[in-house]
Amino acid sequence: MNNETIEWRALEFEPHDKSSDWYWILGIAVVVGALISIVFGNVLFALLIVVGGFIVGVYASKHPDLLECVVDRRGVHVDNISYLYRDIDTFWIDESRREKVKLLMTLKNRLALQVAIPLSEELDLDHLHEYLSAYIHEEEQAESIAEQIMEWLKI
Question: Is the pLDDT reported for residue 1 higher than 60?
Fold first, then answer.
């Protein structure tokens, strides 16, 4: 088991086609939020709302990348990013939505940052669980609020 690797490919996120109405609603929300902020005398917050709205619009138009994921004896690797076992505090395989199964990992020394890695449908989840359990402590966890909001907004 020490030299074994588990590999899979998965889309970075589930793509959603957005109509022009989606972008109009985003634009209207940004303008209204910025105007309200200016009325209350907070120009800096208005600028933050405009910049944030622009970033959300750009990110929403992005197409998902195909991620190359590998789990080996050193850690979990996603494309060019490596999460070594010594840097991972806990893991959880979130199967609450069967069509969107994810590997959730909480990292040490990074303000309890959570990493969510999509899993492939063809992947043997029991085998992945057994493999990771040999290196990392398992602890039930839910997706971060930011991930849930992005999925709800279909970003």
Answer: no
